Amino acid sequence: MSVPAEILKKVKLLEIRTRKIVNNVFAGEYHTVFKGQGMTFAEFREYVPGDDVRSISWTLTARTGKPYIKKYDEERELSVILAVDISGSTDFGSGDYFKGEVMAHVSALLAFSAVKNKDQVGLLLFSDQVEHFVPPGKGRGHVHRILRDLYYFKPQHQKTDLRAALAHLTGVMKKRATIFVISDFIAEGYDQMLRQLGRKHDVIALVVRDRLERELPDLGVVDFQDAETGEIVTVDTSSPSFRQTFESATKRRAEERDRLLRNSQVDRVDLDASNSFVDPLIEYFRRRKTRS
Which of 28, 36, 119, 161 could form a disulfide with 78 if both were Cys (CB 3.0 to 4.6 A apart)? Predict the structure, then answer.
C-alpha cells in the first residue's frame, strides 16, 4: 500500500525537527541513562601486572605457556518499545498539537535517540485492543517505518483498554526491554497488568495531558462530544458551579490515575500537550541518572 505524499512530508519534517533535538541535547541524556544489560567477549590479550586475575583464561594460558586474559566490552544494545495510545481521546488539544500528535513527536524523539545509541526500537499501537505491532529493529529505515505507521495507521476502535496492550507485550517480549507507555491513561483496571510487565521490563509511563482537561474556561453554552463513545452533552460553561464540579471530578480522576501508576511501581513522566515535551523528559532522565 502506497503512503500518501502528505504523510511522507510530515514524516520528513518530523525527522528534521527531531534529529536536531536529538543531536543537540537529547541523545547524551538518553545514552547515560539507558545502558546495556551486560558485557560481551571482545578478545584475548596477554596478562600484565595489575590485571584482574579472575579474567585469566586458564585454558589458553596452559596451551600457550603465557598468561592471557579475556577482554569484554559493554553490551550497549537495548530493545526499546514505544507503546502508543491511538484511541479517540488522543484527538484532542487546545494548543498547537493534539495529544496524539504530541505522542507521535515524543515517539520520534525516543526512536531516533535509540537508533543513535545503536539500540533496537519497536512500536505497539493500541486502543481497547492491540491495533498494530512492529517488532524491534535497527536503523533509520526502521524508524521511518515507525513514523509512517504513527501518522498513517487508522485505528479500528476508539475506546481505551491498556490491559490488552500490556498483556500483548508481556507475551511477546521474552528478553528484558525498556518500554515507554505513551498515553493519556484515561482507563481503569490496568495496574495489575502494568505491575506484571514491570517485574521483567523497565517500564516508564509517559502521561500526556491537555490543560483544558483540568481547567474549563467560560465559553458559554457548548456541545461536548465524547471522542470514544460519540455521546454529545450540552453544558453551560459560564456557570461557576459547573466549572467547579468539572475541575473537582477531573482532579479525582487524575489522582486515581496517579495512584494506579504508583501502585504499579513504574516511573511516571507528566507531559503537557500545551507546553514543551522535551524538557520534562530531560529532567526525568537527569533525576533517574542521579539515583542509578
Answer: 119
User: Whole-angstrom distance between the N-terminal and C-terminal Cα of the chain?
Assistant: 45
Give residue 226's domain range.
Answer: 5-33+77-291
65, burial (CB in 10 Å: exposed 0-12, middle 13-18, buried 19+): exposed
How many domains is the chain built from?
2
Q: For residues 263-288, give the mean pLDDT.
A: 89
Residues 92 and 131 in one domain: yes
Nine-digit cell string for 263: 501502585
Q: Which helix (H) or strand (E) holds 38?
A: strand 38-46
**DSSP string computed for 74-106:** EE---EEEEEEE-SGGGS--SSSS-HHHHHHHH
pLDDT tens digits, 4-47: 677 667 777 777 777 777 777 676 788 777 765 555 556 788 88
**Residues 207, 66 within the same domain:** no
- CA-closest candidate to residue 118, choices 134, 138, 91, 96: 138
CATH of the domain at 269: 3.40.50.410
Determine the longest span between alpha carbons in the chain, in angstroms. Answer: 90
**Tens-digit pLDDT profile for residues 220-266:** 998 888 878 888 989 888 998 989 998 999 899 999 999 999 988 89
Supply the DSSP symbol for 24. I
